[in-house]
Structure formats: C-alpha cells, structure tokens
Amino acid sequence: MTEFSADQIEDFKEAFGLFDRVGDSQVAFNQVADIMRALGQNPTNKDVTKILGNPSADDMANKRINFDAFLPMLKEVDSQPKGTYDDYVEGLRVFDKEGNGTVMGAELRIVLSTLGEKMTEAEIEALMAGQEDENGSVHYEAFVKHIMSVKMFKSGFIGLRNVSGRRQVLSAATARLHQSQHLRQPVPRPEPSSAKNLTDIGTRRIFSEDHDIFRESVRRFYQDEVIPHHKEWEKAGQVSREVWEKAGEQGMLNVLVPEENGGIGGDVYSAAVTWEEQMYSNCTGPGFALHSDIAVPYISNYGSKEQIERFIPEATAGRCICAIAMTEPGAGSDLQGVRTNAKKDGSDWILNGNKVFITNGWMADLVLVVGRDKP
C-alpha cells in the first residue's frame, strides 16, 4: 500500500479541512470521493462506496468521517491499479454535461490533445472515426471499449485518468475548451456535493476547483469569525475593526482590484463567491462588498498614483475601511438628482450638501463623496 510523506499528509489534512462545513474536523461520506479527486486521485463512485462499507443513501448524506479514518482510504485508492475501464469512463464522465452518457466530439478531441502523452491530430482522428452520432456526440462508454481495443493507442490514454483528478491537467483542458471556436458551454467538473440546501454549492459550471477551494475558505471565515458575533454587533450597531483585518488576512477584500494597484487581482467569479457566502451567512453587517467592489475601484481606476499607493494596500489588508457617500435625502440611485456640489478653492475643494445612509460610514477611514462640480 502507498506510504505518504509527512509533508504530503499535512497537505492532505489541510485540504480535507476545507471540506469541513460544520467545524467538527469531519466530512460527510458523500464528500469523500470529491476530496480524493481534489487530491489527485480519480476513484469511481463504486470504489468509494465499497471502501466506505457500502453505506445506505442516508448514511452517505449523514454519516461523517475524520481525517485519521480518511487517510487509509486515500492510501488504498492510490495503491489501486491505474488505467482500467472504469478509470477511463470516470475520466470522461466529467465532461458529460447532460448526464446522458455522451460528450461532444469536439470536446473529446481537445481532451485527447491535452493528455500528458501527446497524440497527433491523425491519431486522434483515427480513434474518432465512426464514433460520433448525427449530433456530433460520442457515447463515451462505447468509446472507451473502442480505444482499449486499438493497439496503436498503447499507453497514451492512461493520461485520461488524470483529467478529472489533477487540477493542472484539467485546467489545461478547460483553457483549451474556452478558446475553441466550436464550443460555447463551460466544462463541468466534480463538485463537493449536489445541492441539498442553499449553502451547498451543487453543480455550478461557471466555477473552477480553485473557486470551490476559495469558497470553502470564505465559508469557514463566516462560520468562525462573523456568525458567532452577529448578535453582539447588531446590539452595538457596528461590527468590529478586528473582523475587517481578519477578512484582509483571508484575502477576501478587494478581490477584483488589480494586484499591481494593491488588490488581490482575482476574477469576478471569486468576488461572487464572497458575495454569495455572506448572503448565505445571513449577516449583512460587514460592508465588505461596498468597500471592495464599489468604493475602492473608484480609487483604483481614477485615483492618482499617490492615492492608489496610500489607500489601496491598506484597504486590502482591512486596515483602511472605505465608504461612498452617494445617497441624499432627495436622491438615491438617481444620480442625476444629486445636489451636493464641489467648488474649487485654491488647491482645496469645498463640498456643500447632505448625505444619508452611508454604508460603512460610521467607522470608515476614507469616504468618497459624490457631488457635482458644475451646476
């Protein structure tokens, strides 16, 4: 049986913890297969069910397992022979968008061209000959039987086992798919679980595995650092500054702001993860989204070099809380109705007007004020 190094075990334990949604250092039985895949394995559901002792559907959803019990199972999976019929089928099942046993031929060609042992275009076309139906789809179980009988294929297809298990290979295949002019749909991949309630991720095809890992981290943050203090903050009328700095340490602030300007430099999907998880927590007190996605982008896009260097790194760290004073007694989202005016006075500006409902305003270190410099 496979023996892992101490460093590997430590990494595995950290990854295992990201799937713990309850905070009891355990995961549900139905998460085990996904964790193994996230760690570079590609067990079939049948394999995992057998290792778990053939539990019932209820047990799969409700029973939990800790890391010490999980590790021997991971070793057993890693020790299993690679390159079996089930391995290949599971590798292709990742790309089965409709769950009907087929993948698009164009998609399959790109997957084949992305394997570790490169196949030539001629070899790919030889394998694909006669495999597509009138809609351009391939029944992948029949295709696997076909390719395993083709002597010219040798061991090249072994790489397919890693398509659903190893992020680097999957990311390469996915990138190629998005660049293809023949395909318009994002590529599905294994998810932590099917959605049973609002806080489950379910099958969300716009998110990558990196987004899923980030989501688990953000969710843990809200469970540990926000929800337990929510009632206290509601009573006090404001959140603590400490939680802002902790959010900064977690990389949750200014996700969309370019790294060169002092932000995280992430994509909109990563930002969406932070929005969703805050809504799932039902704790709206921390105004992270307004700070990160409304106020700071004004500085990033229109601020001077001095302003960018002074404010954004501190805002990303949670040490400078930002707000935007936009709403007035007679104008809210109708910015054409804004009456606050700004008048140049030497090197200064004089502001006259009234603002209300300023999110983060009570504890803000920097407030951007919306006003007119012309009547």
Mean pLDDT level: 80
Tell me the CATH superfamily of the largest domain.
Acyl-CoA dehydrogenase/oxidase, N-terminal domain
**What is the CA-based Rg, rounded?**
26 Å
Number of domains: 3
Shape verdict: elongated
Largest sheet: 2 strands, antiparallel
Beta strands, count: 8
Structural class: mainly alpha
> Briefly, what CATH class of the largest domain?
Mainly Alpha
Q: Residue share in helices?
A: 40-55%
Strand order, largest beta sheet: 1-2
Distance between the termini: 78 Å
Keywords: FAD, Flavoprotein, Motor protein, Muscle protein, Myosin, Repeat, Transit peptide
Organism: Larimichthys crocea (Large yellow croaker)
GO cellular component, one term: myosin II complex
Protein name: Long-chain specific acyl-CoA dehydrogenase, mitochondrial
Protein architecture, described:
- The protein has 375 residues and is mainly alpha-helical.
- It folds into 3 domains: 74 residues, Orthogonal Bundle (Recoverin, domain 1); 95 residues, Recoverin, domain 1; 170 residues, Butyryl-Coa Dehydrogenase, subunit A, domain 1 (Orthogonal Bundle), CATH 1.10.540.10.
- Helix content is 45%, strand content 8%.
- The protein is built from 16 helices and 8 strands.
- The protein has a two-stranded antiparallel sheet with strand order 1-2. Strands 3-4 form a two-stranded antiparallel ribbon.
- A hairpin with a 2-residue loop joins strand 6 and strand 7.
- The N and C termini lie far apart (78 Å).
- About 14% of the residues have low confidence.
